[in-house]
Design brief:
Layout: E1 12-16, H1 26-36, E2 43-49, E3 54-59, H2 62-72, E4 77-80, E5 83-86, E6 89-91, E7 95-100, H3 109-116, E8 121-129, E9 140-149
Antiparallel strand pairs: 1-3, 1-6, 2-3, 4-5, 7-9, 8-9
């Protein structure tokens, strides 16, 4: 896959649901964007990435995205089993996070960096672990994630 000079998300903010034990449904996410963030009239694209629990919301202009983030950052929570979990909202910074599933454990970080360099500068490579809500917290999942930037 060849990355062009225009390989970044413009006018985009992201909603991060990672770490929340029960993720909201597609309808709940849309309702949140429309009813809580009051962003409906400005939204041109909503992309839900289930593997990273991230929702990318593109608006007509950069200023609209920045205003939505500024007015909502740190204000929203989801309550699961009596515990309030913050819903982080941030500007998209141009970094791309990808996950490699079913990768054999003998594949090294250097091999991943070399093969994935086509996506831009590799900022980090890490193997994910099961979260504290599981009986096997801290055990590796076998999924490697890497973050790249094409600036």
């Amino acid at each position: 896959m060849e990355i062009s000079a225009k390989s970044k998300r413009d006018n985009t903010f992201k909603i991060l649901y990672e770490g929340i034990p029960k993720r909201p449904s597609r309808l709940e996410v849309i309702d949140f964007i429309i009813d809580k963030l009051l962003a409906g009239e400005h939204v041109t694209r909503i992309q839900m990435c289930s593997s990273t629990a991230t929702v990318y919301v593109e608006t007509e202009t950069l200023e609209q995205a920045q205003k939505i983030v500024r007015e909502n950052k740190g204000k929203h929570f989801i309550t699961v089993d009596g515990t309030a979990h913050p819903i982080p909202i941030a500007m998209e910074d141009g970094a791309t996070e990808m996950r490699l599933h079913e990768l054999p454990p003998y594949v090294t970080e250097e091999e991943i960096r070399k093969e994935m360099a086509c996506f831009g500068e590799i900022i980090s490579v890490a193997e994910t672990v099961y979260g504290p809500e599981t009986k096997i917290a801290g055990i590796k999942t076998g999924i490697r994630q890497f973050i790249s930037r094409t600036d």
